């Protein structure tokens, strides 16, 4: 049986108290919300904080404000179940609810949080093992060793970013609010993730992810497709987030996912032209990959079969998965084309 190491558990009542505790604790402190990622990592001795600071009960991190017309703010400790079931998120940002619903299992979604998923540790077959297994291979570059067993000649860790919500947040242009004893700052999701399996976040250790700011839904829609072996529980070995916005002959926009406020489903006419687009790949590299070539294949064009195929081909060319997760890496590369097609077809 794997046991947790000894640690001090702190439960602050305010954000100010929480960031003060972690500032005092230094590198040996760690925030926790649901704990569905941190506690298993501690049992495997991948992370061994001496002070664990719970932010699950902070009121500011447990609320949703706003709506699609003005933008939405989601507290970092909102559980994934709450995200899936929140009426405003389901109505105005269905891509967030549907992506959250693909994460893990219902029981773990009851504990896991949106903030935890956005800060998820990178994963690798050589890293996500118990201590004795990792010791048997002389550990790896990400933890306790000096060789990346995925690419032994590389000085870089290739553990993959395996969050389902990260590609979606990058695609739709979300922002994150971080708070520390030095103040607060807003960071674009697109600039928050490093292409490095060890140093994978542009976040200081003493910063707390307080909330997520989503843009207003005027004129855009988005979708997410996930590849995994089982229909539940598994992390993505490929995720594709697609985002498009339209101009129309009348100059009016469209509501994301084609759903109007009164519940009617909107349609895309042949004259609708894409004014902006993003295709973001997750689960195949240490950071989400924005495929600019796929976006360029769509912008200025109607969303038809030719443009979808061109965007999918660009995603296929850009995708370069390594052999450190489930499935054969060459097949995962092939699936980048197919899952981009699925994501864009959903937007039609």
Question: Averaged pLDDT, please?
Answer: 93
In DSSP terms, counting alpha (H) and pi (I) runs of 4 or more, how many helices?
Answer: 12
Return the string of H and E elements.
Answer: EHEHEEEHHHHHHHEEEEEEEHHH
Instruction: Note poorly predicted spans.
Output: 249-266
What strand line-up does the widest sheet have? 4-5-8-6-7
Key structural traits:
348 residues, alpha+beta, 5-stranded antiparallel beta sheet, 4-stranded antiparallel beta sheet, 12 helices, 12 strands, globular
Would you give an account of this structure?
This protein has 348 residues and is of the alpha+beta class. The chain has helices at 15-25, 38-43, 80-85, 87-92, 94-101, 106-109, 114-118, 131-136, 165-172, 292-298, 305-318, 329-346; strands at 8-10, 29-32, 51-54, 64-67, 71-75, 175-180, 183-188, 208-214, 220-227, 238-247, 273-282, 289-290. It has a five-stranded antiparallel beta sheet. Strands 9-10-11-12 form a four-stranded antiparallel beta sheet, with helices on both faces. Helix 10 packs antiparallel against helix 11 (305-318) and helix 11 packs antiparallel against helix 12. The radius of gyration is 20 Å and the shape is globular. The termini are far apart.
Write a concise synopsis of the structure shown.
The chain has 348 residues and is an alpha+beta fold. The protein has helices at residues 15-25, 38-43, 80-85, 87-92, 94-101, 106-109, 114-118, 131-136, 165-172, 292-298, 305-318, 329-346, and strands spanning 8-10, 29-32, 51-54, 64-67, 71-75, 175-180, 183-188, 208-214, 220-227, 238-247, 273-282, 289-290. The chain is built from twelve helices and twelve strands.
């Amino acid at each position: 049986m794997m046991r947790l190491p000894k640690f001090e558990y702190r439960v602050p009542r305010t954000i100010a108290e929480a960031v003060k505790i972690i500032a005092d604790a230094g590198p040996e402190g760690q925030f926790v919300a649901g704990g569905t990622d941190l506690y298993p990592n501690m049992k495997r001795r991948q992370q061994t904080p001496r002070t664990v600071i719970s932010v699950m009960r902070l009121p500011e991190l447990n609320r949703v404000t706003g709506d699609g017309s003005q933008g939405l703010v989601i507290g970092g400790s909102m559980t994934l179940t709450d995200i899936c079931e929140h009426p405003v998120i389901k109505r105005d940002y269905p891509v967030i609810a549907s992506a959250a619903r693909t994460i893990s299992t219902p029981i773990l979604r009851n504990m896991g949080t949106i903030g935890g998923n956005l800060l998820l540790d990178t994963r690798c077959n050589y890293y996500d093992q118990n201590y004795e297994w990792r010791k048997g291979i002389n550990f790896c570059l990400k933890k306790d060793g000096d060789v990346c067993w995925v690419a032994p000649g590389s000085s870089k860790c290739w553990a993959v970013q395996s969050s389902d919500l990260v590609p979606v947040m990058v695609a739709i242009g979300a922002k994150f609010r971080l708070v520390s004893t030095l103040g607060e700052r807003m960071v674009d999701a697109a600039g928050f993730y490093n292409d490095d399996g060890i140093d994978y976040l542009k976040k200081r250790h003493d910063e707390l992810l307080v909330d997520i700011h989503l843009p207003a839904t005027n004129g855009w829609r988005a979708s997410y497709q996930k590849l995994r072996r089982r229909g539940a529980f598994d992390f993505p070995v490929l995720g594709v987030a697609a985002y498009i916005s339209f101009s129309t002959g009348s100059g009016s926009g469209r509501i994301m996912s084609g759903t109007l406020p009164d519940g009617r489903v909107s349609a895309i006419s042949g004259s609708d032209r894409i004014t902006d687009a993003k295709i973001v790949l997750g689960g195949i590299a240490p950071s989400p990959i924005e495929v600019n070539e796929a976006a360029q294949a769509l912008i200025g064009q109607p969303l038809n079969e030719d443009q979808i195929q061109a965007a999918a081909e660009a995603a296929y060319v850009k995708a370069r998965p390594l052999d450190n997760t489930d499935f054969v890496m060459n097949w995962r590369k092939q699936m980048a084309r197919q899952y981009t097609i699925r994501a864009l077809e959903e937007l039609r």
